[in-house]
Specification:
By secondary structure, this protein is α/β, with parallel strands linked by helices. It has helices at about 5-20, 85-95, 125-140, 155-170, 185-195, 210-220, 235-245, 275-285; strands at about 30-35, 45-50, 60-65, 75-80, 100-105, 115-120, 150-155, 175-180, 200-205, 225, 250, 255-260, 295. Helix 1 (about 5-20) runs antiparallel to helix 3 (about 125-140) and helix 3 runs antiparallel to helix 8.
Length: about 300
């Protein structure tokens, strides 16, 4: 199958099959408070939004205050990156400040539901599949009858499988190595080096220090590395929640699930070792996945 046709087929599968939105597991009671949408003007009070962590939002009708959970507790809406605080910490802040609405961006709230706390879950399986597409595009440009790529780190079989499907949708003959290791940086780097020794042209891992260690191993051999947060855009989810709040809609005791069809899964950054032509194709593929709305779960 020609590369362009294969990539087009993958996009249809991602947009239609994976969707951007699915319900989270479990039964949820949804609390949404709605008021009339305000008309935003210079004289209209703006929604005070607290931001905790590495999130950047630009939503008309808001004024942003950055700080810790304690420092922004007087805002009307607080957006918290899952990398900056745990669910337990955010849930405790929500209970202590019932008049403030909280959103945990990048994680579910299942197991610690609060009426004024909503979770924004990013579809990491779709991010893994898009990473596979990029790896497949890179491998397709290299010589050899059966190019190899690798997934390293803990045994996250769902993510590794999605990565493999993405790569094979671009290049059917590709070999996907699964090099499992414990989530310890030294072990992850060792796993990546083993995969490279087995012929891997691209190394991918989930996130955190494990992914950083795997990338370091790949870069020592001048090979590109991928990680899932390269393909996740949490600010898009944060802005969706902020726009709803400006319109008077506040959610709680539920999780919203964001996927490729909502624009949350896309190319955030790419390893500079990826050829420019390949990067252009990858970004074009990601752009075609936007559109739609998240579902609550």
């Amino acid at each position: 199958m020609r590369l362009g046709a294969a990539l087009g087929l993958l996009l249809l599968v991602l947009a239609a099959g994976c969707g951007g939105v699915q319900h989270s597991a479990g039964t949820t009671t949804t609390t949404a408070t709605t008021t009339a949408a305000p008309t935003v003007s210079a004289a209209t009070p703006r929604l005070r939004v607290g931001v905790v962590g590495n999130l950047s939002i630009d939503v008309p009708g808001t004024v942003v205050q950055r700080g810790t959970l304690d420092q922004v507790s007087d805002a009307q809406l607080v957006l918290v990156s899952a990398s900056a605080a745990t669910l337990a910490e955010v849930a405790a802040a929500a209970r202590a400040n019932p008049s403030t609405h909280y959103a945990l961006i990048g994680a579910a709230t299942k197991g610690n539901r609060v009426g004024n706390l909503v979770g924004a879950v990013l579809r990491d399986d779709e991010a893994a599949r898009l990473a596979g597409v990029v790896a497949g595009l890179v491998a397709a440009g290299e010589p050899g009858a059966t190019p190899r790529i690798a997934w390293v780190g803990p045994q996250e079989r769902k993510l590794a499988g999605a990565y493999a499907r993405g790569a094979r949708s671009v290049l059917g003959r590709i070999v996907v190595l699964r090099q499992w290791s414990r989530s310890i940086p030294s072990r992850c780097k060792e796993a990546a080096l083993t995969a490279i020794g087995r012929g891997a042209l691209v190394v991918a891992a989930h996130d955190g220090m494990c992914a950083s260690a795997a990338a370091a191993a790949a870069h020592e051999h001048n090979l590109p590395a991928l990680r899932l947060d390269d393909f996740e855009l949490p600010a898009v989810a944060a802005e969706f929640i902020a726009r709803e709040a400006v319109g008077g809609v506040f959610r709680g005791r539920e999780d919203l699930v964001f996927g490729a069809a909502t624009g949350v899964i896309g190319v955030r950054r790419l390893d500079p070792r990826i050829p420019v032509a390949t990067a252009v194709r990858a970004r074009a593929a990601a752009q075609q996945l936007s559109g739609g709305r998240p579902a609550s779960g």
